[in-house]
Amino acid sequence: MRRVSMLIATATAVVMCGDAFADNAKIAKIHADIEADYADVAHIDPDALDALPQDSRVLFDVREADEYGVSHLSGAIRVDPGMSAAQFNERYASLLVDKTAVFYCSVGRRSSLLAQRLAQSDTTSGASRIYNLVGGIFQWRNEERALVDDDGATDAVHPYNRFWGRLIKDKRAIRMR
Asked: Which of 8, 71, 119, 156 is the most buried (most CB within 10 A)?
């Protein structure tokens, strides 16, 4: 009975949120939880990322291949969300010497987890700084910043799933692969 009540309460909350769930204020609340859960991870907002010279940073997209295929930040390298710190360092450390590494996913949880694994590892990636992008690709898209796919510029973004896709303001931008 208790489980049924919890499911009804969750479903009611999702229905009540409706389109009100689709704004950066909600993403900011989620990000506050992410910062609390990953206190040892530094975060960078989209404006500060834009201010970094492109040749001083490396972007890592920490989403699944189908999400990345719909869109990603220009120049981002897709990495598996479950990748260990050792695997990451083996593949990418040479790209990061004296560079800033910026990780992102849909809203920031998966990317923060990978950034945390790197911060807590015994090996160093060679990066001068490691950041998680505040709000992930959803906030980036909501702010109408540039995205690309294999064919060039796109306005589309993968919603991760129906629940999280509610954070995307422009529902016409949602694409699944």
From this structure: 71
